[in-house]
Amino acid sequence: MANDECITVAIYTHPEFYPPLLNAIDELAREFANIQIVTRNLYTSSWKYPTAVQMFSSGKAMKIDESEKASTGWKIRSFLRFTRTLYRSLKRRKSTWIMCNDPISLFAFRLIRPFLGYTIKLWYHSHDVAELTSMRKYSVGYFAVRSEQRYFSRIDLFTLPAEARLNFYPTDMLKGKWIVVPNYPSMHRMKPDQTPNLSLNDDLKLLYQGRISDEHGLEELLDFVKSDPTILLTMVGPGQEVYIRKLKDRIKELGICNRSYILDAVPYEGLQEITRKHHLGLAINKPVNTLYSTAVMASNKIYEYAAAGLPILYFRDHHYTEVLQKYPWAFSTDLSIPDLSLIIKQIKPNWHELSKKAKDDFRKNLNFAVAFESARSFLKTPPRQ
What we know:
The chain has 385 residues and is an alpha/beta fold. It contains 14 helices and 13 strands. Strands 3-2-1-4-5-6-7 form a 7-stranded parallel β-sheet. Strands 10-9-8-11-12-13 form a 6-stranded parallel β-sheet, sandwiched between helices. Strand 4, helix 4 and strand 5 (121-125) form a beta-alpha-beta unit. The radius of gyration is 22 Å and the shape is globular.
């Protein structure tokens, strides 16, 4: 690519809520001398971006949970401010590509595209499937999802983390190409090896990282901790206050306060330090909806555990089993106490070997540089107009 080419990355929330996007920005910095990120002012940035990056945030600072509770009028004004910021950034510096990362940023770009005055190639990356039935009618999100379905004929590159999600998009209308880019972690950002030691007499430290909610088997795992005094459980991430309080009450009721911990969410760059103090990663996603049933390649925590040398537990469901059963460090469970006990007995004496195999698979194949290579090649080859 020419040294002076620019790409604009648009996301309606914030890139630091989406680790795979941070990894993509690292890779894009190898191809583009200038990267503009347009987002809303919902998070105080703590990520060390490549020097090529300029960040443009719309609106006054507000926490994301506060924005979700704001009035309809505020949400409309917030969308219009974001759209204006996106337009100004694209006019300020002509971009070869724009990468939209959600239906709302795609909708905003659709509105301003006719007024840019130059040709720009459109890359749409869908982190999550947004279903119209889950949107409040006539909200910004509702109109954005409707627009997404009708705009595929104008997309040059469509990427998504799991091929199983293709059925939810009108790819038959696609102008360009679709490419699967799994949500693997970055070798560039992973710290050097430093996994904990584990002997047969040590407690086994389990870790759940991600949104703390009832789709992840956390209540069943607390019962398992109660049944086995050699198990410790740490949960770290955001969640609804009501549900977190429910878990804390359950921990007290079971009498396992000294073996079960709930930590507040931490910035992504601080998560590795916590991960590497544990032995087993919990990647339980019950298939209760489209997002979770198709998340085996989209759940970045699965592969972040492996990168840190942690074997994983995942929910026994065919969507996950057909992908993960080939890895000796990945164990499926139905979350019953007998099943979990049997798995722990398999893991503990073989933990060091399993840890090494997980890290080897990360280095060879399950890292973002490998996953991104097809998209990188396409960006270098302009699509036919």
